[in-house]
Q: What sequence folds into this?
């Protein structure tokens, strides 16, 4: 897979509302999949599919802790990416308000 394909894969993974919600939960640190399952109103299998896509894109990593699986951001730069996009949106909203 070349760089452009990997870039598209990452943005595509982040582009789904459920996966974005998962990433937002993980911004402040690792979470047990059981906690994610409580906070995200979808079935365990649906959540697992979304986590798999995020993992395949290299956005999250998992670790077995006892009987539970914990997920965390694979790279702290993901936080920066989310913050940059949030800043872009805030700037865009301010411009709309000024018009």
A:
């Amino acid at each position: 897979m070349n760089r452009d394909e990997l870039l598209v894969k990452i943005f595509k993974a982040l582009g789904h509302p459920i996966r974005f919600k998962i990433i937002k939960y993980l911004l402040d640190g690792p979470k047990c999949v059981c906690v994610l399952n409580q906070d995200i109103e979808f079935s365990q299998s649906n959540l697992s599919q979304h986590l798999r896509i995020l993992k395949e894109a290299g956005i999250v990593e998992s670790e077995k802790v006892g009987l539970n699986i914990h997920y965390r951001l694979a790279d702290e730069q993901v936080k920066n990416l989310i913050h940059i996009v949030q800043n872009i949106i805030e700037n865009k909203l301010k411009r709309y308000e000024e018009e």
